[in-house]
Design goal:
- It is a single chain.
- This protein is mainly alpha-helical and about 270 residues long.
- It has 13 helices and four strands.
- It folds into two domains: about 200 residues, Rhomboid-like fold (Up-down Bundle), CATH 1.20.1540.10; about 45 residues, no CATH class.
- The strands form two sheets. A two-stranded antiparallel sheet has the order 1-2. A two-stranded antiparallel ribbon has the order 3-4.
- A hairpin with a 2-residue loop joins strand 3 and strand 4.
- The chain starts with a helix and ends with a helix.
Length: about 270
């Protein structure tokens, strides 16, 4: 007999999406830094090499530290909107990977510039926030599906133009953000762009790293990577029909097969 409670539990996901774990960690760290102010400084990323060695965890921890309520709300809204789209197509393992590796790539470029480039070297900059990771997610999604439209507030915007809007926003807020944060954004965006280009060629950096930490089970017959099932170019009318469906019902309405068609279309465009 199906009770209302059984119907509810049957339709409830058995696991929580890793997107919500990322959002939750950001919120928890934000609350910790409010209650314990020294953590705010200890978790930020310094460009000074001796300070960086003393805070060796900071290339990772800085991705979860925010300066204020407006900053965390803005970043988490972007993370939620774009994270859902990225996760629905490439999965939550890759979402966590692009969040962390994109942010770390931003940290690498930031530290490099502020130690080696004349005019910036020795300035002792300090950065924090999830924005570099969010730039990585936005650029990765736009590189994969450049012509897919999403609704930005009330206007439909193609993902490739969303990256341009984000870049313009960076330039407008240059004085508020400073070149240090923008440097991290550039590093994260470059990583995301090249990651998707390599993924379209069949090389998945993130899955490769994940597999290094997985226990190896019994040998099995290798199955084909779902991203490489076929390289046949989709028909244009088929792609147009899918894009039309997205504009009417949203990306989440697509089936797995339709998402694969879009992936193959983006791969052939590249």
């Amino acid at each position: 007999m199906h009770t209302p409670w059984k119907n509810l539990t049957d339709n409830t996901p058995k696991t929580i999406s890793k997107l919500y774990w990322l959002i939750g960690i950001n919120v928890i760290v934000f609350l910790v830094t409010i209650v314990y102010a020294p953590a705010n400084v200890a978790l930020r990323l310094p460009s000074n090499l001796p300070a960086l060695l003393a805070h060796f965890w900071s290339p990772l921890s800085y991705l979860f530290v925010h300066d204020g309520f407006i900053s965390i709300i803005f970043n988490l809204l972007w993370l939620y909107w774009m994270g859902q789209l990225f996760e629905s197509y490439l999965g939550d393992d890759r979402l966590v990977g692009i969040y962390l590796l994109g942010g770390i790539s931003g940290a690498v470029l930031f530290v490099t510039v502020f130690n080696l480039v004349p005019g910036f070297a020795g300035s002792g900059a300090l950065i924090s926030g999830a924005s570099a990771s969010i730039v990585a997610i936005v650029v990765a999604t736009a590189t994969l599906l450049p012509n897919v439209e999403i609704r930005l507030f009330i206007w439909p915007v193609k993902l490739k133009w969303l990256v341009v809007i984000y870049a313009i926003f960076d330039l407008i807020n240059f004085n508020a953000f400073g070149f240090s944060v923008i440097t991290a954004h550039i590093g994260a965006g470059l990583f995301a762009f090249f990651y998707i280009k390599q993924l379209q060629k069949g090389s998945d950096w993130i899955k490769g790293i994940i597999n290094l930490f997985k226990r190896r089970g019994p040998l099995k017959v290798a199955s084909k990577n779902p991203l490489k099932r076929t390289s046949a170019r989709p028909r244009q009318d088929e792609v147009d029909a899918i894009l039309d469906k997205i504009s009417k019902a949203g990306y989440e309405s697509l089936s797995k097969e339709e998402k694969e068609v879009l992936f193959r279309a983006s791969k052939n465009e590249s």
